[in-house]
Fold these 4 entries.
Entry 1:
Amino acid sequence: MAALAELRALRSLCGVALFLTQLYVLSGRAGSLMTTKHSQPQSTFAKSLTSTSTNTPYFKAAESTEIPPYVTKCPSNGLCSRLPPDCMTCNTNYSCIYGKPATFDCKVKPHVHCVDENNHEQENFTINMTCQFCWQLATTDYVCTNSTNCMTVSCPRQRYNATCTVRDHVHCLGNRVFPKMLYCNWTGGYKWSTALALSITLGGFGADRFYLGQWREGLGKLFSFGGLGIWTLIDVLLIGVGYVGPADGSLYI
């Protein structure tokens, strides 16, 4: 009887061991399945990140191929030293001595091509110029606007505000466009010699005043016979010294 009881206990222990073994195997399979399911979204997300990072360069903005507007002012394959200032960038030295020759290191801007005296293409070169500001240049080195409402025959002599621009081939320090006060110096085509001759010969009839465009004074001299000669003599002196000039304010030629 004791042997039979031990046999039954051994069978129970084997059954329990078998149940625990099956339970362990089943739990291991379930864990592997869970791990696989969780790993798949991560790998998919990783792939999406990888594909996004790989395709990123395709969203970069294309480099601009537009030609800058200053290129139209720059002669192609010309001498670098003769390029207009808009075509180059220079290291300006403001500590140079005024009126003395100065040398500046320059570099051509993008899309600009120039050569040296040996016809070799250059990017870096030097410019020789006189150390002075643009507004200190000679009047022949810049162009200024003209005024049509300018009276040249006046005392004191009138001035007007003009905007001046330095010529392309001239190099200087500072702004190349600057304001300047200029004397009124335009002419309407009236000759001083003709006005003086008319004043001497036919001044009593107001011919000199009519010629200069001063119709009221001309009629006054005509009907007063030159102010009985006194007005005629005064006009000869005034026209001779240049005090009386054309009615439009222009200069004699």
Entry 2:
Amino acid sequence: MDRFRMIFQYFQSNSESVMNGICGLLALASVKIYTCLDFSCPCLPRYNMAYGLGIMFVPPIALFLCGLILNRQSLVMLEEWRRPQGHRRKDLAVIRYMCFSIMQRAMVAPAVWIVVTLLDGKCLICAFSGSVDPKKFAGFANATLAQAQEMLSRVPCKEDELMRNSTSRRAVSRYLRCWSQVGGCQLSLMAG
């Protein structure tokens, strides 16, 4: 029982370090989850964007909520906010500081997830392959708009019979991957 009390006191006295460690573990877990995920775009014009952006932004929202829930300061801030007025006034500066601190820590894992997905590029290629101007790429110039949209929606699918050896597919894929990686680098520089 004394060991448990000593460990509990250690975590209480070093809660800042423990919270930073938990945020770091969430960030590492997000990278591991993404690398284990076998991303496969549906290659359908109506679903590509929703699927690609969903994979890019839904898990970070869940990671953000986990970061908020796991942060011990969330409960302290909530108790301070709900505390009756009494003789001591509520200090909004303290509540703002705690809120900023909580948000900052909770954003680590989602930011890592988004940077990793952007640097990988698969999600952005899936989401925006149908939005590319077909006139910029030679292989789509002679097709009708409907045909071009159908072919562009199949750009993320390397195994597709229609797009397997297409140089235009590779060009669109490289174009979108470059934009994705530029966004990932800029976001990582802003976050760092």
Entry 3:
Amino acid sequence: MWNVLLSFSGLVALIQLLFLPFFPESPPYLLLQKGDKAGCLEAMKQLWGEGNYHTEFDDMMKEKTVTKGTKIMNVLEVLKEPSVYPQLSTMLLLILSLQLCGLSATASLQESIIPYVSLGVAISELISIILCSSIIDHFGRRILLWGGYLLMALILVLLETSLLL
């Protein structure tokens, strides 16, 4: 029944994919990244209802002026920054622990290919982390979430179809 379990995560991804276009962008993202003041206020009204949000808006404007001179770093610059080593080591530990959880051994694979499957999964996770973190600033979070959920739903539909055939 593991294929039903995989289908459930695809169903959740499909539901999220259908409802994501109806949610507004994050107000701080609209103001700080895009510079869209009107869009920020509209998103605040849509998320929080009618009201006076000038205090929150002023706080975001102060944050914008504080971060105005801050340079946005790419992936290689972040990896060279010593202040992020604790966070990077935590992420690395998480990825390694996922590789040691035994998922490859429970997938009914031949014992001789399990190390290669684990290595392939680890490499694909590393590539996806680097790729996603480097393009998220270019496209924005909404498009990446939408595309990711669409791709995940498509892959799971193809997986279910291939299992049925």
Entry 4:
Amino acid sequence: MQDYRMIQVGFVIASIAGVFGVEPSFDVPVINVTVQEGDMAVLPCSVDFLGEHKVVWTDQWSTLLTLDDRRIIDDPRISIERPYTRDWNLHIRKALYGDRGQYTCQINTNPVKTKTVMLFVLVPSKIVDHLSTRDATAKEGETVTLVCNVTGVPTPEVTWYKLPNEGLQTRERLDLEPGIFSDIGACAYTLQQT
């Protein structure tokens, strides 16, 4: 019942605003949104006193995504959700790492009013098996290079352990300096018999 009264009050205020020429304004401060890859991203945009104005969402390349509650872009993952009449929340289902960046909610006032939301997409860490060392065999005294390629955002931290020899129960952590780094989080360690 209370939500219904709030909606009624909202309609009355919107009607009065239209009569007295009150300009639309954003109700929610600028925020950042962080989601895991594969989850739904909800980018909030709440507008007071919208009246006859229109709301659009654009991405960082100024691509028009939505107009009012209609999706313009040909991406079925994108929609506008309106839990309350003043809300114009952009939903991105199954967010991808490529979806990260700045999104803008705009009202077609003169000049245009904008509110930006930064979307950060985290990618779970994983080892890239086909680019990593599986097994290595060497003679005593030879140098061995072990490679572990990992992906993830933020870049994961890699820790190397020496498995216990027969009869021992604990593994030994190797505090080695990485030999190689690249954009996908590659690291190689060289073990040398001294």
